[in-house]
Design goal:
- It contains 12 helices and 3 strands.
- It has 236 residues and is mainly α.
- A hairpin with a 2-residue loop joins strand 2 and strand 3.
Length: 236
């Protein structure tokens, strides 16, 4: 912001989020950085940090709820990894930038000079504080639509990455759940010189070949075979 530019009304941010606060001072507190409070000798700093603490927990719970509802067949490890992608500082800062959240922050002069409005950690903390304010004002009903709308791009990217985390484990869990059987991997071909062998592996359920894969190691070939098997299997 320019030195003489008027500070934007937090109600604009609330409108962007699609929510009307019953207690607008909660949002104002969430947007007041501790550097501003320290310079002004005000008490909002502690309130902002409490909202940030609450927002961190809220985001973890809402994202877990969303993932379990839509990817209930995924392993706990997969779900945890996807949630971590949604809730890390880089992801939160990207969401904050799309909201232009930095414009609405009250910063101390030093933080302003240091480019605080676009600092990843500061934006991530501020977004968590805003989520905490939403929760206090309207509970889960206030947070869920904001999460679904504003985190949509992060959700899509995290889910796409999560699918490829552990194809072998995912295939094993699915076969155990649906057929009470484990996949069986067989090396069907080895080719190339000893220092550069190419392994080709097939994965079976009983005598049925579910998929094939190749790789420079048996492990890589098995992973690729499991990935093909998952692509071929009908949706659960």
């Amino acid at each position: 912001m320019e030195p003489n530019e008027p500070h934007p009304d937090p109600a604009e941010l609330a409108a962007r989020l699609g929510y009307v606060f019953t207690a607008p001072e909660r949002l104002a507190a969430a947007l007041t950085h501790r550097s501003y409070s320290a310079e002004a000798g005000r008490a909002e700093s502690a309130e902002s940090q409490r909202l940030e603490f609450l927002g961190d927990a809220v985001l973890g719970a809402i994202s877990a709820e969303w993932l379990v509802a839509r990817r209930g067949d995924w392993r706990e490890g997969q779900l945890t990894q996807v949630r971590s992608r949604l809730t890390n500082a880089a992801a939160l800062a990207r969401v904050a930038r799309r909201l232009d959240l930095g414009r609405y922050l009250l910063l101390g002069r030093g933080e302003e000079r240091d480019g605080g409005r676009d600092k990843e950690s500061l934006l991530a903390d501020a977004l968590e504080a805003v989520l905490g304010a939403l929760w206090l004002d309207g509970g889960a009903a206030a947070v869920r639509p904001v999460f679904a709308n504003e985190f949509a791009a992060e959700l899509e990217a995290a889910l796409a990455a999560g699918r490829d985390d552990n194809p072998k484990g995912e295939l094993q869990e699915r076969l155990q759940r649906e057929h009470r059987e484990n996949p069986r991997y067989e090396v069907v071909e080895e080719s190339g010189p000893s220092h550069d062998v190419l392994f080709k592996v097939a994965v079976f359920r009983d005598e049925e070949c579910l998929g094939r894969g190749a790789g420079s190691t048996k492990r890589q070939a098995e992973t690729n075979a499991a990935r093909q098997a998952l692509e071929r299997l009908p949706a659960p």
